[in-house]
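Example (one chain per record):
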Amino acid sequence: MRCVYCDGAGKRTREHVFPGFLLKAAERQGVFYSNAAKGYFDADAVVKDTCDTCNNIILSALDAYVSGLYKKYLVRTLVTSRTVRFDFERLLRWVLKVTYNAQRAFGGCPRNLTHLRQYMLGRSARPSSLILWGVVMKRSWVDGRWMNPRDYRSSDLRIPEIELGLEVNFCHMLVINSFCFIVADLVNADDANRDKLSTYLAHQLGAREVPPGAETFEFNASISKMDHVSHNVQQARQNPATFPDSREINVGGKRLMLTGLPQHYAIQRQRVRDSKHYLMTVDTQDGHHHAGIVMTELPATLKEFALDLRSDAIPLSKRCYAGVRRGQAKTYVTLFDPDEPGVPHLSTLTGTVQSDDNWRMFRDAIVANGSRLFIAESAFLNGGVTICNTVEVIAMQEDRAT
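Predicted structure:
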C-alpha cells in the first residue's frame, strides 16, 4: 500500500486526524461521528496510510507551526474580535491536511482533495481555484448560561450549486474553538464565481475571504451569523444520527451524554423530500396568471398564512425560497430553507412532467408576478382559492430551449 500523500512505498505510520496538540489541550476527551461506521468514536482518531517521511517530517512541521498559532490565538474563546497574524500558505496547507485526514477517517469523500496532495506537502504552487474564508463560531446563551465553543470539528458545507450557477469540487469547514476556517475548490474560479460563493457564505454565515498571501485577518464575532448551539442544531437536522433524541450515545461500550444542545431542546427534523405535488398555472379571471405548487404533504413551517390568491397584498416568505429547473420534458422545483440550504423543504428528484406549452405558461407566470411562486394545500385542487405561502424564485434554469 502506497502513501496517500506522496504515493511512495515507505513504511506506513499512524497519523492523528486532529494533531496531538489539540488532543492534549482539550478540556475533556471528545468524540467524533463517523459517516462510514454510522457511529461515534473517541477523539483520538488516526489514519494508517501515511509514510514516515510525510507524517513525521513534512506534515509534522505544519502541525508544529499551527501549534504556535493555537497557543497564541486559537485557544481563546472569542467574544469580540481578534486579529491573527499567520503565514497564509502554511495555514491553508494545514487546513487542507486536517480536512483530507478527516475525510478518510470519517467516511467522507477524500478523492475530491487528492489533486491537492502535492500542495499540502509544499511541493507545488497553490492552485488559483482554492479559496479560504474565516468566521467566528460565537458562544451561545443557553439555559441561563454561556456555552463556549470549546471543541474542534471538520464538516462539509453544502453549497446550492445549481441556484448559484457554479460548481465546487468541495467546500469544508474546520472549527477550532471560536475560529472557523472554510476552504473550497471551485471548478471555474473566475472572479464572478468567486464573488458569488463569497457573497453566499457572507450572507449565510458571516464569513469573509482571507485574501491569498494575506499576513493578518480579523476574526470579528459581531459580523458572524453562526453560534455554537445553532451549528449543532443544523447538523442534527441534517443528520439525525449525530444527535439522537435521547442525547445518549455508545462509545467503546460506554454510555455517554451529548452536551452540545440545550437539555430540553426538541430537534425539529421535519422535511418533505419528493412529496406528491402538482405544478399549476392559474387564471384568476382578472387578467393575471399565477404559477404555483400544490403539495399533498406540507411542512407546518411553510403555512405562513391563509389568503385568497386574488388578494392585492400577499406577503413574500422569509422562511423559504425556490429554484426552478426545466429538463427535457420535466420541471424540477426545489423549496429551500434559508437557514439550511443543504436541507430543502422540498426537493423534486423525479421532477414533474409538463408539456412545453404548459412549461412556458408556468415560466411566464412566474416572471410576470415578480419571480413569485405560490404554495397551496391539496384542497386547492378542488376549486379552492386559498394559498398558504408565496416564495421568491431566485433561480430559473432551462436545460434546453423550449
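Caption: The chain has two domains: 12-257, 277-398.
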